[in-house]
Design a protein that fits this description.
Shape: elongated
CATH class: Mainly Alpha
CATH superfamily: Stage III sporulation protein AH-like
Number of strands: 5
Order of helices and strands: HHEEHHEEHE
Number of domains: 1
Strand content: 15-25%
Strand order of the largest sheet: 3-4-5
Radius of gyration: 25 Å
CATH architecture: Orthogonal Bundle
Helix content: 55-70%
């Protein structure tokens, strides 16, 4: 009796697999263009595309001007100063995620040596640590009363861009001291103050 139950169960599962396989083979593939995004998802996708398209030229935008760039495919991309920090953050996050994916591929690769895998793991840890440190510093700077802050760590260099109501050497010095107190091993700290748009 037990053998018959197992046989029936096995045949049922096999028939289910066959039916699902036929369904997936005959169903037409949906393209990305068929997907509609609403609200925040659409805005997030647009900002990510804008950050990719405008490249490094976004960082040159100053004092509330609107940068209008034409992408390679002919579309016009416009990023205001209010969205500038978000666009740069997304671009930085995308490039770091891409780098981490490449490093993870190295780690799981059968062709990579143990030293290469270890170096890739160390670099992933360094990227994660830089992300966490940047977020922490941005939070500390904003807590000091600044409108917005963007911190970028590249090796031993820290570049800080802050939106402030007043820009002075004293304000820049306060930010440098804050960064230096949190990151004792960083000696090269650059601060750029941008007037806030209020």
């Amino acid at each position: 009796m037990m053998l018959k139950k197992q046989t029936v169960w096995l045949l049922t599962m096999l028939s289910l697999v066959v039916v699902l396989s036929v369904y997936y083979i005959t169903t037409p593939e949906e393209t990305k263009q068929d997907v509609a995004l609403t609200g925040a998802e659409a805005e997030k996708g647009e900002k990510a595309e804008a950050a990719k398209d405008i490249g490094k030229e976004v960082t040159e935008d100053e004092k509330g001007e609107v940068t209008v760039e034409e992408a390679e495919d002919g579309t016009v991309v416009s990023v205001s100063n209010d969205d500038l920090f978000a666009a740069i953050r997304m671009q930085l996050e995308d490039s770091r995620n891409e780098r981490k994916e490449n490093l993870e591929d190295t780690i799981v690769s059968k062709d990579a040596s143990a030293a290469e895998k270890s170096a890739a793991k160390d670099e992933i840890n360094a990227i994660d640590e830089a992300d966490a440190t940047e977020e922490m510093l941005e939070t500390f700077i904003k807590a000091k009363g600044y409108d917005d802050a963007l911190v970028r760590i590249d090796g031993q260099k820290v570049q800080v861009t802050v939106k402030a109501e007043k820009s002075s050497k004293t304000e820049a010095n306060k930010i440098i001291q804050l960064v230096s107190s949190e990151m004792e091993d960083m000696k090269d700290v650059a601060v750029t103050l941008q007037p806030s748009n209020q």
